[in-house]
TrEMBL record:
It catalyses: an S-polyprenyl-L-cysteine + O2 + H2O = a polyprenal + L-cysteine + H2O2; S-(2E,6E)-farnesyl-L-cysteine + O2 + H2O = (2E,6E)-farnesal + L-cysteine + H2O2; [(2E,6E,10E)-geranylgeranyl]-L-cysteine + O2 + H2O = (2E,6E,10E)-geranylgeranial + L-cysteine + H2O2. One of its GO terms (molecular function) is prenylcysteine oxidase activity. The keyword Oxidoreductase applies. Its main location: other. It is found in: Lysosome. GO terms for cellular component: lysosome. Keywords: FAD, Flavoprotein, Glycoprotein, Lysosome, Oxidoreductase, Signal. SUPFAM superfamilies: FAD/NAD(P)-binding domain (SSF51905). Residues 1-25 form the signal peptide. This is Prenylcysteine oxidase 1. The lineage of its organism: Eukaryota, Metazoa, Chordata, Craniata, Vertebrata. It comes from Paramormyrops kingsleyae. Belongs to the prenylcysteine oxidase family. Its cofactor is FAD. One of its GO terms (biological process) is prenylated protein catabolic process.
Amino acid sequence: MLSTLLPTRTLLFLGLCLTGRRGLASAPELREPPKNIAVIGAGIGGTATAYFLRQEFGAGIKIDVFEAGTVGGRLATVKVGDVGYETGGSVIHPLNLHMKHFVDTLGLSPRKDVPSKMAIFDGEQLIFEESDWVIVNFFRMLWRYGLNFLRMQMWVEGVLDKFMRIYQYQQYGYSFTSMEKLLHAMGGDEFLQMVNKTLEEAMLKAGFSQSFLNDIVVPVTRVNYGQSVRINAFVGAVSLAGADSGLWAVDEGNKLVCSGLLYHSKAELISARVTGITRKMRTSKAGGTVPQFEVSYNGEFGSAYSLYDIVIVATPLHQGLSQIAFSGFSPPIPSYFPGRYQQTVSTLVHGILNMSFLGSTESPSDFRMSDILTKDHGGLAINSLSSLDPVHIPDGYVRPPASVKKVWKVFSPQPLSKDQLRQMFLSWDMVSEEPWLAYPAYSPPHRKPPFILHDHLYYLNAIEWAASAMEMSAIAARNLALLAHHRWHGLQGKVDQEDLHSRLRSEL
Ligand SMILES: Cc1cc2nc3c(=O)[nH]c(=O)nc-3n(C[C@H](O)[C@H](O)[C@H](O)COP(=O)(O)OP(=O)(O)OC[C@H]3O[C@@H](n4cnc5c(N)ncnc54)[C@H](O)[C@@H]3O)c2cc1C
Ligand SMILES: *[C@@H]1O[C@H](CO)[C@@H](O)[C@H](O)[C@H]1NC(C)=O
Ligand SMILES: *[C@@H]1O[C@H](CO)[C@@H](O)[C@H](O)[C@H]1NC(C)=O
């Protein structure tokens, strides 16, 4: 997106070995290991959880992963002819170290890069078009917005530097019982405040101009989260980092990471919808009683239930996404937590763009923008319009110009009507529409759902209320695998430690 405007970031931490030295310090096992663990959901969150659980608990335990739909969840591709395209989560930041580690471990590769080019549409015309020349972009931005642009990069970089601390903590085996504690360990009170105030508040307070927010920041939050700058400042920073250079995707489709992790973890995939989780007790070898969970599910084979020692819910507990009834818990666990998910309809169109829709008189054969972001304009039905490159880039591929029939991706809050399509495209021969409940509808301050629903029952997607992204789910997955392990074995020394940053720095 804003790629050529930003300096290339050095991949500081990529040398970090993600599995770490922690094994050496393992404390004595205080309990018999759990027999089996259930993970509900096989998106990137659930499959990464299975992977990290295997790493923590070893080969001896049984891990079952339940999936009601398709492995990958919000990472999904559709075919246009023989060629696949991402319809859900698509770009990965170069400093998303878990995603990077998964791709390396699973023998996958990053997709070949096709340079992106961004434009901004205000509902009537294109107000900005990225040039091929970095220096031209730089002076255009400087001319219009003064130092706002450089300051924004520094602001995002400051957040990212603190964010990166999580990898070191996790490498050493530290885990956190709540999102607040995890955020605090990364960025102190600053991060806690960021999730409770809007991006707009935070940036105005930091001295950014309103016109910079309207012209540049709003288009970025609209394309990434389908929302305005009233999202929380933390997810806002994640969103702005998503305009960095070096963004990548997985060759042949991001969802391959999910099936790869599942296979690598040697977990069993159960194609069924979990309908309920009930707290039960079992008698242990030692004679006492220990809690257990009865997971009920519906599959093609009918309904069934199984008992588990540990359960990790890796799907949002919100209307329209999962419906799981919890029983036997005190205090009770709701099926839905407060707040709703934002609909983003992802429409793929194989057709020819109507350049007049963009108020442009440029020749379509010269128009090679890849990402057209939008300002908040009353009458505008779309959040963004992108020229989409396939999940696998063949040798010699060049992104075709707008004069050619090709695949466009439109994000909009509502499905596009025939009339709306007719405005945007001169002709088309295929339309595919995916109405995602994509990410939380952020309205800070918001009470965050817990990671721990009950002793040994965990909730991964709570993390999305700080920020929703593939990497965030992966971070939560590692945190919960560590937490489940440490709490099972009573290893309190690795849970909720304060001041890790300075402690680990002096240890190094
Ligand atoms: C249009 C769009 C664009 C996005 N763009 C990006 C991007 O560019 N970069 C980025 O990092 N992120 C992006 N995201 C966000 C990213 O896709 C998500 O944060 C991430 O994929 C969430 O993964 P997850 O595994 O936590 O949840 P999900 O992928 O939602 O997985 C949950 C799984 O649980 C299953 N399930 C639900 N209920 C049950 C049940 N009762 N029993 C059994 N299974 C159940 C579901 O079928 C689903 O497969 C985007 C999302 C969307 C929708
Ligand atoms: C193209 O866009 C213009 C401007 O929005 C509109 O008037 C016209 O009807 C659209 N469609 C065609 C086929 O030109
Ligand atoms: C954020 O706001 C919620 C809801 O108002 C509140 O419960 C929570 O304590 C706040 N968190 C912080 C860190 O201020």
